[in-house]
């Protein structure tokens, strides 16, 4: 089996040798899906996985815009349309200086499996730009978003490709991009998700990724008759996913101890309650400040510059910042400190070495493509509401989100159960995500 996986990876490396994040994501899938393909005749001789690692379309374009001092700035924009076998391309846009083809291809590849797991008809895509929103004025953000959409608009559409937010892209940016799309097309359609309530957005979409990550962890804990109640929780990040993961964990009776950003992390031994969380939301979403400012407001807490929060003793860890933010040593420290459950809110936050530590220790571990799928699932619900020209209540969308997360958990159990009864959620998510897309590709022939 190892030979087959190595031979496949050699082919992928030949074409994508300079894209380490993409190779990391493909390797993880290949290790679990190739053994499944080998056991199932219908996939033989079809090169399905080889087709799945090649984007259907990779679009790269210039984004020129004028900053507040009148200087012309040039950034690079991308959209990776990875796979449309089961529905229109769907996935977020990331604005961050580290954005490049490797990072977006890994995210687009993960998105194909994730979207398949949601049970909704969505293909996979991802996009963004190396634009850095940090320190930019609202007017600069608007001019950049407008410029970005003057090219992207020709490649997307409510039945073709429906982008949404990701790192650096929230409600403000979606608003500016939606405005320019509408102007250029002279149509009002659900071409983006994460829209504002009064112009086609869905209730619960802002909360969905964080809530879903906690719902998934709660499902994993329930297999061991356990729950969030009374648990200590360590969270990384302090953006959209981190904030709402914290909100749900607090609601379920847990004590949240940390938040972080690219500067460092804060540790509040007293616990971050709903009032303190409101402060973080204002700090990050309105003031656009740094997490270090938390300790000015709450001096009992400590700030650790340049550090990540994984040395803090906890029962549950929720990595919600970015890829490869939790390495092997940090994973070992979490396990040694008694952590029993890791649910990824971010995409690929754990390195392969970290995953190895979690699996060796046999703790509950959920890969992002399963545990953070609540965001895109609720985007799918936003698309349904837009098509129906209806708005569902908060209660209704939350109930659907919860059901979807439970269904994803069931699929992982179905495909990931080991002989000893334990559940390999990576194997389960990869195979369950693969089967639906692969079967659609088989039915549609070689295209
Ligand atoms: N927003 C969504 O609906 C979804 C987001 N995700 C993933 O969740 C993660 C977080 O995304 P959002 O919360 O939406 O973005 P965001 O822009 O709201 O927040 C990102 C957070 O990560 C922190 N961060 C960025 N780079 C960092 C670094 N190098 N070290 C430490 N912290 C860093 C930022 O300071 C910020 O707190 C990403 O991996 C994203 O792909 C996954 C599924 C859906
Ligand atoms: O809601 C969406 O379409 C984007 C979600 C996303 O980018 C992700 O799941 O990583």
Automatic annotation (TrEMBL):
CDD domains: NAD_bind_2_Glu_DH (cd05313). The keyword Oxidoreductase applies. GO terms for molecular function: glutamate dehydrogenase (NADP+) activity. Residues 202-445 form the Glutamate/phenylalanine/leucine/valine/L-tryptophan dehydrogenase C-terminal domain. Keywords: NAD, Oxidoreductase. Gene3D superfamilies: Glutamate Dehydrogenase, chain A, domain 3, Leucine Dehydrogenase, chain A, domain 1, NAD(P)-binding Rossmann-like Domain. Pfam families: ELFV_dehydrog (PF00208), ELFV_dehydrog_N (PF02812). Belongs to the Glu/Leu/Phe/Val dehydrogenases family. Homohexamer. This is Glutamate dehydrogenase. It comes from Winogradskyella vincentii. The gene is gdhA.
């Amino acid at each position: 089996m190892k030979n087959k996986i190595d031979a496949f990876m050699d082919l992928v490396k030949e074409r994508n040798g300079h894209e380490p994040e993409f190779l990391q994501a493909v390797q993880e899938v290949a290790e679990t899906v190739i053994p499944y393909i080998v056991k199932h005749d219908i996939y033989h001789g079809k090169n399905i996985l080889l087709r799945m690692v090649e984007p259907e379309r990779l679009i790269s374009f210039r984004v020129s815009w004028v900053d507040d001092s009148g200087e012309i700035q040039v950034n690079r924009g991308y959209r990776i349309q990875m796979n449309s076998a089961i529905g229109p391309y769907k996935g977020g846009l990331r604005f961050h200086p580290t954005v490049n083809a490797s990072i977006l291809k890994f995210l687009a590849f993960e998105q194909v499996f994730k979207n398949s797991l949601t049970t909704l008809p969505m293909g996979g895509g991802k996009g963004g730009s190396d634009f850095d929103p940090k320190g930019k004025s609202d007017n600069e953000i608007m001019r950049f978003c407008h410029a970005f959409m003057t090219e992207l608009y020709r490649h997307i559409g409510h039945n073709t490709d429906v982008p949404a937010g990701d790192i650096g892209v929230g409600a403000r940016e979606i608003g500016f991009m939606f405005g320019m799309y509408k102007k250029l097309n002279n149509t009002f359609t659900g071409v983006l998700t994460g829209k504002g309530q009064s112009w086609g957005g869905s209730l619960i979409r802002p909360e969905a990724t964080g809530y879903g990550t906690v719902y998934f962890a709660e499902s994993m804990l329930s297999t061991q008759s356990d729950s969030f109640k009374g648990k200590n929780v360590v969270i990384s990040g302090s953006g959209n996913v981190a904030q709402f993961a914290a909100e749900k964990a607090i609601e379920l009776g847990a004590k949240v101890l940390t938040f972080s950003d690219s500067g460092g992390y804060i540790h509040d031994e007293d616990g971050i309650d709903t009032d303190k969380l409101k402060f973080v939301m204002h700090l990050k979403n309105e003031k656009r400040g740094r997490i270090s400012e938390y300790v000015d407001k709450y001096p009992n807490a400590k700030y650790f510059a340049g550090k990540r929060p994984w040395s803090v003793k906890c029962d549950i860890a929720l990595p919600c910042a970015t890829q490869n933010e939790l390495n092997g040593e940090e994973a070992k420290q979490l396990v040694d400190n008694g952590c029993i459950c890791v649910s990824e809110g971010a995409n690929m936050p754990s390195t392969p070495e970290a995953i190895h530590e979690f699996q060796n220790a046999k703790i509950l571990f959920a890969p992002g493509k399963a545990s953070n799928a609540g965001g895109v699932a609720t985007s799918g619900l936003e698309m349904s509401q837009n098509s129906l020209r209806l708005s569902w209540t908060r209660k209704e969308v939350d109930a659907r989100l919860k059901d979807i997360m439970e269904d994803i958990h069931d699929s992982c159990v179905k495909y990931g159960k080991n002989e000893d009864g334990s559940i390999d959620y990576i194997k389960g998510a990869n195979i369950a995500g693969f089967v639906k897309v692969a079967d659609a590709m088989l039915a549609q022939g070689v295209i």
